[in-house]
């Protein structure tokens, strides 16, 4: 059986693309795509096969953390290409603004759902919280209906 692991030049463990992708629960095509975008630069063995080491582990973990934060691959590539604080801030500021807007929208959604859970009316459209949200959305005042 062919081994996908061997020692690198510094003695560190090097993994083939399959074993490396599996370590993160990724498909191998994802790593190839990230490499094509310039996000990864794996070493190659004598046969031209990709070999991933400790530095690549850190890079992939960084990419995954940034993706989980909502950053796109182009933004991640821009961040990885800069060391300047001002440039980093210019890249991250719009992402932070967008995330704040998404959090506000999610909070409003949660309030609507919790309002529905806590409302004692049989018809959710009679709940005060629901009526307030509808009034805000339509820009009008919704009359309070009798119970």
From TrEMBL:
Domain HTH merR-type, first and last residues per copy: 14-82
CDD domains membership: HTH_MerR-like
Membrane-spanning residues: none
Keyword Transcription regulation: yes
Keyword Transcription regulation: yes
PROSITE patterns to which the protein is assigned, alphabetical: HTH_MERR_2 (PS50937)
InterPro entries: DNA-bd_dom_put_sf, MerR-type_HTH_dom, MerR_fam
SMART domains hit by this protein: HTH_MERR
GO terms for MF: DNA binding; DNA-binding transcription factor activity
Record keywords, A-Z: DNA-binding, Repressor, Transcription, Transcription regulation
Name used for this protein in its record: Putative transcriptional regulator
Organism: Streptomyces gancidicus BKS 13-15
